[in-house]
Write a structure and sequence with these properties.
Distance between the termini: 61 Å
Mean pLDDT: 81
Strand order of the largest sheet: 1-2-7-6-3-5-4
Structural class: alpha/beta
Number of strands: 7
Largest sheet: 7 strands, mixed
Low-confidence stretches: 1-11
Number of helices: 4
């Protein structure tokens, strides 16, 4: 038996694909977050250039980025992007799931960082929630809410699988499958 594995490095995937980004629409409502970013990997050197390319036109040139080192194994001091350099800093006080971007022309923008391994449906929910104008939900609250939602979805799937595995049969109050032959008939005195 032959096994084929995808040897595409995360760096290759990030540079070949556009940034997965959801931004709040332009409005006067200020919220806790300005949108969400779903990187392909935890490699800032590979991930920041496509993000900067996507944001440079809308926000102006990104000059600085800050992260929490909890989620990023290597934090480079500088990342070259098309025509300029982004300076990267880190703060342990910053929420681990938040990225702060600084631009000389626009100012500061805060993005929820969705972990690369997140399932697409969960990432879509997080991206939509982070892009609501005027939202008071922080990165930590959004991630905690998604953990609860994800757990509920997994529990529901598990219950459905159990139901299907039992043939959709009803359980007796004692936890055993009821056989149709043992169910009382209407005229047998059961009330």
């Amino acid at each position: 038996m032959t096994t084929t594995t995808d040897r595409t490095a995360p760096r290759d995937l990030a540079t070949q694909s556009p940034a997965r980004l959801s931004l709040t629409p332009k409005t006067t409502l200020a919220g806790q977050l300005d949108g969400a970013w779903w990187p392909y990997s935890r490699d800032l050197t590979a991930e920041l250039p496509p993000l900067a390319a996507a944001l440079d036109e809308a926000w102006g040139r990104i000059t600085r980025v800050t992260v929490n080192p909890t989620r990023w194994p290597v934090i480079p001091h500088k990342v070259p992007v098309a025509g300029h350099t982004i300076h990267v800093g880190w703060f342990t006080e910053q929420h681990p799931d938040k990225l702060i971007l600084l631009s000389l022309t626009v100012g500061r923008w805060d993005l929820l960082v969705i972990p690369p391994e997140t399932e697409p449906a969960a990432a879509a929910r997080l991206m939509a929630a982070a892009a609501i104008p005027g939202s008071v939900l922080t990165a930590g609250v959004l991630m905690a809410n998604e953990a609860v939602i994800g757990r509920g979805i997994r529990d529901t799937r598990r219950q459905e699988a159990t139901w299907d595995g039992e043939g959709g049969a009803c359980m007796s109050p004692f936890g055993h499958l009821k056989d149709r032959s043992t169910l009382p008939l209407p005229g047998d005195g059961w009330r």
